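Could you please consider the sequence and fold appended to this message?
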Amino acid sequence: YEVQPVLYSDMTVIKSNTPIPGKTPIGIVFDTNKRLAVALKPSPSELEWDNNPTNYVQNISNWESCKFTYDNEIDSCGTNGKENTAKILAYAKTISFSYPAVEYANQYTTPGTKAGDWFLPSLSELKSIDKSNVDITLDVLGISYTTTKVYLSSTRFYTDDTPYSYIIKYNNASFFTPNRDDGYVLPIIQY
């Protein structure tokens, strides 16, 4: 395992085994090709996926419905968290409805970023975060929190026409759960 590049508030990315004086870290880069970084801390508590048990997410237009049988299929459907987040928020506005986990990610800010810059990751994006590398990098930055939690994603799963969202453990053990369950939110940003 190794220290990962750090995203700073001025949008520079530096890989270093020591903190960079005068710079404010805001994220840890986990995908250099897609230019994605994960927030330094998750939501302080679990959040609801949605706050209305009678609402069904299948009404969200153009939001892919994914069915995965095997772990290696996760990268084939609903993989863009930024697009998923935008679709969910647009739908919520049309029905004056709330998706607390999605809204938290969308409203998350740091020095150098504004609301709307961060988003709820897809399952594929969450799964690609290497917990051990993030933990090592957090140690270098002097930041501590328990990373082994259950995190919500913006990928949708259907079985028997029941709405589901994905939840993933940060240690890359994924499993499915109904979309009305609670979970932590770990915002990501494309820089």
Q: What stands out?
A: Residues 81-94 form the longest helix (14 residues).
